[in-house]
Amino acid sequence: MLITSAHNDIAVKIRQLSESRQRRAIGEYLVEGVKPVREAADAGCDIVSVICTPDRESEFKGATLFSEELFSRVSTEKTPQGVMAIVRIPDTKPRAPSSSCILLDGLQDCGNVGTIIRTANAAGYREIYLLNCADAFAPKTVRASMSGIFFARIMTGGRDEIFGALSDVTMVALDMNGENLYEFVPPPKFCLLVGNEGNGISDDTMSKAKYKVSIPMDKTCESLNASVAAGIAMYHLKNIK
Q1: Contact status, residue 15 vs residue 78, Cβ threshold 8 Å
Q2: pLDDT of 22-67, one tens digit each?
Q3: 156-190: pLDDT as tens digits
Q4: Contact predicate 45/52, CB 8 Å
Q5: For the whole model, what pTM was predicted?
Q6: CA angle (226 as vertex; 76, 207 as ends), nearest 5
Q7: CA distances from 1 to 33, 51, 105 (A)
Q8: How many Å apart are CA 114 and CA 227, to the nearest integer?
Q9: How far apart are the C-alpha atoms of 39 and 36, rounded to whole Å?
Q10: 208, 221, 210, 214: which is closest to 236 by C-alpha?
Q11: Contact 156, 172 (CB under 8 A)
Q12: What b-and-e string marks burial along 141-172, b requiring 16 or more CB atoms within 10 Å of the CB?
């Protein structure tokens, strides 16, 4: 059956899932695009439903069919590819990490959060803690993560809850006043702290750090984008022998 009405229950839910409050209440999020939907399935994500346009029906058997007009209306993409999935949000309750991890403190840009998730997955950081950050499951964040969100354990919560889970882990803060990153030797297991785009790591979070490291830069450069800096630090700290 081809669905054309914007009042259809699934169409209404898709629009709701573009809002953070509704995502939390429903416990689901959106994944858009041919490659991301396939990768979500391959990663074993709990897919609630797949929606596609008629021209994609042969690729996604059993999907709910939306007319092209309706799909464009509910899509969060500028150029929709004609397929999306509704995916259940996994358990995000903080727990102790199994290996080195990363904590993002107050990052507000979905693109930065998503890019860091993408890079963390590539660099082998499977556990990512978000404290007062942009929603990891917002469409823009999911898109920027380039499927990294399907493979990392994203944990959110209050300050006490997160730092309780990290109580036995050495904290390494990425800070402009820290020692040279390339001269620092990290402990076998650590948590890299990355702060807000404009204000850096909050005082409360910084007080938890045992070490501070900085990325040396040419004098003509004042700072790096948060996601770029995080990427450099993640790769370097993981590859020290």
Answers
A1: no
A2: 999 999 999 999 999 999 999 999 999 999 999 999 999 999 999 9
A3: 999 999 999 999 999 999 999 999 999 999 999 99
A4: no
A5: 0.95
A6: 120
A7: 22, 12, 46
A8: 9
A9: 5
A10: 214
A11: no
A12: bbbbbbbbbbbbbbbbbeeebbbebbeebbbb
Amino acid, res. 40: A
| Whole-number Å distance between alpha carbons of 203 and 191 | 17
In the β-sheet with 64-66, what is the strand arrangement from edge to edge?
A: 2-3, 64-66, 47-52, 83-88, 28-32
φ, ψ of residue 94 to 5 degrees: the values are: -60, 140
Q: Which residue has the tokens 């890079």?
A: 119
